Structures are given as C-alpha cells and as structure tokens.
Amino acid sequence: MEDTNVFPSVPEYLKHELNEIAKKHHFLEYNIHVDKGCNHGDGFMATMIAVTVKGQQCHNGVTVNRELPLICKILPVCESRRKAFSADTVFEREAYFYNTISPIFVQLLKEKNISVDEEFTIHPKCFAAIYEPDTDRCLIIMENLKSIGFDLWNKRVPHDFETVGMVLSELGKFHAVSFAIRDQKKEIFDKMFTVTEPFLKMFRGNGAAETMVSGSIQQTIDVLDDVQEIKVMQMVKDNYQTWIREYLKSDAAGRFSVLNHGDLWNNNLMFKLENQNRQLRLVDFQLLRLTSPVMDISYFLSTSTNPTVLQRFDDLLQIYYNSLATFLTKLGSDPQKLFTFDDLEDQFRQFGDYGLIFASILIGVMVSDAEDIIDMDLVKDDTKANGLATLNDDTKMLLKERISSVIQLAIKAGWVKI
C-alpha cells in the first residue's frame, strides 16, 4: 500500500482497516490515495479524510481496474478539541448508529417487504464503525457520496421550499421507523438506545461549548432591533442550558420519543439533484438521541431555511406528517393511535423553541466565509469565543434577516411566551 497526498497523516489503525476493506473487495494490487475530507468550516467534531483505493480487482477470473472512494472519520488529533466537544462521546453515538440502530431498522423493513435500496436509503453505506477509546481506535469508514454525484448544498443559499419538503419527507420516514418499533417490538425499543447524551458533557459549566453558544446568541441580540425579537433571544440565552437538560431527557416526550438525527442542518445533508431523481442522504449521526420528533424539525427549520420558506410552515408540517403517517401505515402501525397531527402540533408547543438555541451559531457559520470561521484545533475547554464565526457588517445583516423570520415564527406559533 502506498499513501500519497497525505492530509493529515494516516494512523496505523486506519491503514489496517483500509487494507482489510481492500481485501474484502477483492483488490489484488492497489494504492491508497489520501486527501482532506472536507473544507474548513464544514465539520467540527471529527477529522475527515478522503481515501480512494485504486488498483486491480478480480471478477469471475478477469482482472479489471477499479476505484473505491471512501470517507474516513477519526477523532481529532488535538486533545483540547476532543475535550471541549466531548469527541469520544459523540463518536460512540455514530458508531452505535451504524453497528446497532441501522441493522434494527433494516431488519424491520425487510420483515415488512420494504426495499431499503428503493425506499429507505437515508444514510451512506458504512464499511466500518469502530469505537475503542481505551486504545484510541475510533473510526468510521463510509462510501464517499461525492463520488456518486452527491454534494452539500451551498451554505450561503438557504434551502428552497421544494428541498426543505424533501428533507422533511425523508425525516418523516426516519421517525416513523422508531414509532413502529416501539409499537411492534417494544422490548427491542426499550433496549435500543443506551448511550450517553454528549450535550450533558459539553454543557457542564463554563467551558468552550457554553461560551460559543451564549456568545453566538449575544451576537444575534446585538444585530436585532425589534424589541420582541430581542426579548425572545434574551430569554433563549438565559434559559438554553435548562432547556437542553430538560428537553434531552429520553423520557421528555413520553410515548412520542423517537430516534432523532440530532444535528440536522445544512452541513449534514447531502443531495443529488440531477434530473427528476432527487436524492438525499443524512450524514453525521454523532448527536443521535431519543427525544421528541419536533427537535429534529425545529433544529432544521430554524437553521437552514429562509423567510419565504418559513411563511409556509403549515404546509411543511403537513408534508412531514403525511410522509410519517404513510410510511408508518406501510410498516403496519396506525398513526392515528401512535402520533396524530394534533400530537405533532402539541409537541411543537412544548419543544419548538429548541431550534432557536442553535439557529444563531449555525446561521453565523453558514453566512460566513471560511476564513472567518474559528479553527477548531485552537479551541480549548476554557476558550472564550463569541460563536463559531466572526461576523462583519454584511454577514450581520444576513444573520439578522434569517434569524428574525425564525423568531417571528416562534412567536406566531406559540413556541415562546413573551
């Protein structure tokens, strides 16, 4: 094996796994080419490495040239970055998703004669997911979606209505599987999710995570001029840590708790928008958690849309619910018994304000150029930072425009009381 264009240097345990994957895919002679896996500002909690296995494979006695493009996630080399963002804990969750949760989901779909390839291709193919923190051997190796035509949405351009509807439709199916497992296999559901909530580690005092979130909320307060909007964001700043502790309890939503992606924003969505065959993949299941389905919806709508799209909030909610109800019925459960549209609206009244916590910090990243986004390797647990990005006059105006529409929706829909 030969490493070329190494960025960063590849640890030995990753080389070993790549060699094992090459052998399983019948590569005879091959090189492994390495490059950076994402641009600055696209990812925060892990180090991404793009890898391509290039060489010869044997198929039916015939030797052919082949490439296998992969994306590898490993723990950040920087120890302070690991500590500040509980990297070990979030890595555990994603490995747990691919090794435990996804197979449970797939098994149910197979029992219901639902094609995973045609109706539930919600995440990239995973080749390896290892979590062994005692030996520092933590990695996830997936297909490189860019090699098959997927890409991130331009973060400077908020998602349009059609694309937001597409995301919510797929999210409805993802949540429906949890409802069906709880309904039909409760003993499995009750044991399905047992890993530690990372936010309870990140938000444990006055560390980097807290100062970044509170600093970004203050950035938002400083750019607003509407008295009601300022009052709402001040309330968010004063209460967000309590909300996080309460909302993220696994029993907070009672019988409506489902597995959430947990970090559903622009940079964790990859699209293939060629012709009429529009496809979506969710990536980065590092904040996977059991909670209200509204948490995913609120997080996404608050961070990744625009004022025009949010004006059609009722239509978007209907798209989500119709998808959930249709897929839940297909899975053999009754949505009118498990989760009605009225239940969804009630969950929004309880948890809809959750998205406001992260809207400031993530919109700030999306409206900013790469050079204005913080270098995560410089972050320490005692770092005092006003958000993840330094805003200029132009980006302040963009932040104001987008966050104002989210706050106004929260007021109108009754998610916040002022």
UniProtKB/TrEMBL annotation:
Name any one Pfam family assigned in the record: EcKL
According to the entry, every stretch annotated as the CHK kinase-like domain falls at: 140-330
InterPro entries assigned:
CHK_kinase-like, EcKL, Kinase-like_dom_sf
PANTHER family in the record, alphabetically? PROTEIN KINASE-LIKE DOMAIN-CONTAINING
The name this protein goes by in its record: CHK kinase-like domain-containing protein
Organism annotation:
Pseudolycoriella hygida
